[in-house]
Design goal:
2 domains, Spore Coat Polysaccharide Biosynthesis Protein SpsA, Chain A, 8-stranded mixed sheet, alpha/beta, two-stranded antiparallel sheet, 10 strands, disordered C terminus
Length: about 325
């Protein structure tokens, strides 16, 4: 049985994927090639992406995803995985040297989940740039953690109901802690997430997933004023970056468009997801997740966690 199965979901980003895969070469990771496999799940089913996979990393497995979003794509990779440990990252991340070896060296018998460190080496300069940064642990973002494959499957994997690539990892983390599990933080297991440019479509996708999370998974109806307040706070923080003036007009326009769009979609999202939320889910999750709900749209904060709750580092089941 293989030790590690690295799962990389991808969609229409062949050049970013190339950098990700090239960084996973055995000589760079310090792990023998017979100890791990890399599975790339392509939700676009692109011949270009298939070629990138075959040329960028010897032995990498290419598979067409189910085309139901990143949660379903990751679950698809997990079903194909042969390793004892599932290693999760994204196609726009670049594993640092020794990333996989650091996870391998951190393994211990009583620990089933490990979280790596996510950095942005280039830094966030403009208010239009974002990157998930996790220097201290406690967030368990899907771009950098490993989990025992049997545990992952017993929890049902990621919730495939999330409409977009946001909050599905937060939901998985909460289900993990609901079952009494925590995890250990491994700062040596680092990946670099280069900065990306904020776009209105990406922001709205994140907000829609957040509404799904609150309504369907937490059983709570979001308050519009709280969502708007948290968006404004997050965006204002970005204006204190080193080169804040570079994209100032575009950034201001984006904030206005984002706030207006959330106001427009607030009621349709509430209606759609309220109809989809069974009473049993609302009742079972509402009390446990009040801390997250009260914090508002934490996922929108490009400089910090998507939610404010910090999970203990112990990885033992209580």
């Amino acid at each position: 049985m293989l030790e590690f199965s690295v799962i990389v979901p991808t969609y229409k980003r062949p050049e970013l994927l190339r950098s990700c895969l090239e960084a996973m070469a055995p000589e760079r990771q310090g792990v023998a090639p017979d100890r791990y496999e890399v599975i790339v799940c392509d939700d676009e089913a692109s011949e270009e992406t298939r070629g990138v996979v075959l040329r960028s990393l010897a032995g990498a497995v290419y598979t067409v995803g189910p085309r139901k979003g990143p949660a379903a794509n990751r679950n698809h990779g997990a079903r194909l995985a042969q390793g004892r440990w599932l290693v999760l990252t994204d196609d726009d991340c670049i594993p640092c040297a020794g990333w996989l070896a650091a996870f391998a060296n951190a393994l211990r018998p009583d620990c089933l989940v490990y979280e790596g460190r996510t950095t942005c080496a280039e830094g966030l300069l403009s208010p239009l740039e974002y990157a998930p940064i996790n220097e201290t642990g406690g967030y368990l973002w899907s771009c950098n953690f490993i989990i025992d494959s049997s545990l992952f499957r017993s929890l049902g994997g990621f919730d495939e109901g999330f409409p977009h690539a946001a909050m599905e990892d937060v939901d998985f983390r909460e289900r993990l802690t609901d079952h009494g599990f925590g995890w250990n933080f491994v700062p040596e297991a680092a990946i670099n997430h280069p900065p990306r440019t904020l776009r209105l479509s990406t922001l709205l996708a994140g907000h829609e997933s957040y509404y799904y999370y609150l309504i369907v998974r937490c059983g709570t109806i979001p308050k519009l004023w709280r969502v708007l307040m948290n968006i404004a706070k997050t965006r204002v923080k970005a204006f204190f970056r080193p080169v804040w003036w570079r994209d100032l007009p575009k950034a201001v326009s984006l904030i206005v468009a984002e706030l207006a769009s959330v106001c427009f979609y607030h009621h349709p999202w509430r209606t759609k997801f309220s109809a989809a939320a069974p009473d049993s889910v609302r009742q079972s999750n509402q009390t446990h997740r009040q801390v997250i709900v009260q914090e508002g749209s934490g996922f929108a904060d490009a400089d910090g966690p998507r939610v404010a709750r910090f999970t203990p580092s112990s990885s033992r089941k209580s």
